[in-house]
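In response to reviewer comment 3 from the previous cycle, which asked for concrete evidence that the modeling workflow produces usable outputs, we include below a single protein chain processed end to end. The sequence was submitted unchanged, and the resulting structure tokens are shown without manual editing.
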Amino acid sequence: MKDDKEFLEALESRKVPILVLDQKWHRLFALSGKTSEIKQLEEKVNQLLEQQGKLNNDLKELKKTKNRLMKSIVVNMEGTHEENEGDISSRKLDEDKRLIDEVNVKMEEIEDELIELPRNINSANQELMLESMRYCYERLRQNSKEADEITAWIDKVRVELKKNIIKKQNREINNRQIYSYMHDIFGVDILNIFDLRQEDEDRLQGKKAVENADERN
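The workflow returned the following structure tokens.
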């Protein structure tokens, strides 16, 4: 994409870490997981890194092999001056030289690949970076949207809560007024009798409510 190209050109002077090797990058996806696009790009970078590691190991082994062959050549060159072993040493010398030529060719091929690989890794890593940034900014937008919705819900609930607190206080005040008027009108003795009767009715209603709940369950 043209926008991606211009964006990457603007980032040329910035060093981007290899994302798959950064634990903080992996934690970006702790809640929602990685998208299929990110997983594919991650696998591409991992494969290139594995290839680079394998080639470096192969190159080390080839260098060891070449050193062994060089030492063998030195020994066989000395052996060609001895009468009995001259022919054997000469054949071994020719074989070692042939093997060294093969090793040199393989080493050159690997070194060429190792020159190209960092560019391929960097390119794949940049693709992964762009897709990761798209994911992160989408998550930021989604989180902000949900946070705004929750804030609106809290504000609405807060208004309802205030209204209900006022209603509750009014009901309690009204109860105290009713009881006070009943006390003044009917007197303490009569109220005590009705209080006991009301307590019995409340207990009975509570018992029925429990029984009905048990039947439903």
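The chain has a mean pLDDT of 84. We consider this sufficient to address the reviewer's concern, and the full set will be provided in the supplementary archive.
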